[in-house]
Fold this protein.
Amino acid sequence: MNKILVISDYANIVSARPEAEIFISLHKRGWDLLLMVPEQSPWISRFQDEGVPLEIYKPGGRKDPGEISHIRRVLDTHNIPLMILFNNRAVINGVRAAKGHPVKVVVYRGTVGNVYWYDPTSYLKVLHPRVDYLLCLQEGVQSHLDRQMVFTKKKSFLMRKGHKPEWYEGITPKPRSEFGVPENAFLISYVGNVRRFKGVKYLLSATHILAHKEDVHLMLIGNGFDKEPFLSMINNSPMKNRIHVLGYQKEALSFVAAADVSVLPSLRTEALNKAVQEAMHLAICPVITDIAGNQGMVQDGENGRVVPIKDSDALARAILDCYANPENTKLMG
């Protein structure tokens, strides 16, 4: 088998794990791979321990001449027939490096939206004519990309990133006393950096409906909650003294394991959300929105709750139902 070049950032030990484990597994099965990995990646030592061939490089920016030249040298030196690009910088630089080279270019896409046939910038990345195939994380992603192929044939395929249950063995709940939550409280967790599409403002609005339950607490893990408008929304909430802003946590999973429900009020773009999968593997009931990217993950009332997007009332009702039925909530976890 000819060598396959894979370019990704592998910047975070936890979030990159599903992808990294795929290529470790393929290497063990005899696939001839070469992973192009930034010099600061925490995954380098693991890849080396597993014997995965690496091309370590110093990343530049998008359209970076040095990075483009480096990729081209790798393509030429190893006579690469297939290159898989996993992040926007890799896509932008990779398609330029592939100009005039016979390599087949494959681009991975894990989110719904932000790629449109009428948007000229989309043709610098995912819709670039040099891209031969698209790997899509989930059906919602594939369906969206297929609709954008108005000037070319459809070229999308599904590639899921699975989670192994053994990754979550040994993760124990963080003692609630360590972050100011009573042991008998009903604890809601949210994990993720603040982004507009995350729908955090609808979760914070829902606290106005949840506030009358004095033993309900909300735990916010991620960056950005100290900035407006979220800081004011927290301070203006009637349950502000029960909202625990914990910022970035290296061991976020141990905090999630201490919760009763995990809420992800996403508005768009995400697919097979990693935080939802983590909560489910930790046996924590997920409460999610009905965006296309969540399709098929949770069956409402069976293994979690599903609510409409941008609906604080529905979100609060679902949480209150979990609160009122603790045994059923545990069964949905």
The chain has two domains: 4-162, 166-332.
